[in-house]
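Example 3.2
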Amino acid sequence: MTEFNKSRWANAEFSQEYRDNADIFIVERRRLLEVMKSFYRYFILSNENNNILDLGCGDGIITLNLLEIDKSISATLIDASDDMLNKASDRLSGFENINFIKASFQEILEKDILHGNFDFAVSSLAIHHLTMNEKRDFFKEIYSHLHAGGYFMNIDVMLAPTDTLEQWYMQMWREWIDETKTSLGIEGNIFDDITRRYKEFDDNKPDTLDDQLNALRDIGFKEVDCFYKYGVFAVYGGRK
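Structure, written as tokens:
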């Protein structure tokens, strides 16, 4: 795992670029969020006073979307970036029972960071910074902090199982960026290097969807499945 302070995400300017352009960078981002909300409504909303864990919370967009359908939740948001946590705090300033923790995934694995148990643990576009062995350890840590019957969901980028599929997935990603730029009236070659950056940056360590689903099953998660997929972007998870 790349130490957070040595990663791009420690740079406030890079974080700002991501926040400003996430709907362009992330294929079907709004659909990914709607899948998460549908999952929450179907499996979790009927319970009262749900306790939510938002891992690598960024600017708080995941928790905000959950609060739109369940204002009674208590949420713990964890991120290693002061800049991201400040933005998340601003975004969620009108809500109660929100707790912020500054910690990297590395610190979660090495220290006693998480306390209590949760009904729903969710992460978005963050766990791919861990190696596969670290992912397994991270999934175990999440599992140990879920209530019985609690759920884990990850929204993230995956490593394609073959080079041929990866080439197609990268093409679909480039087409998405081009179409989104056109719809927004953005001209020029801005954002055209996103797929290259994804492949070349050392702190990106995606693994195949099958490897991650199998890791969840080995740990003990039930009802493990991929809930949505578009090229390299996928939503998957399971129940304790």
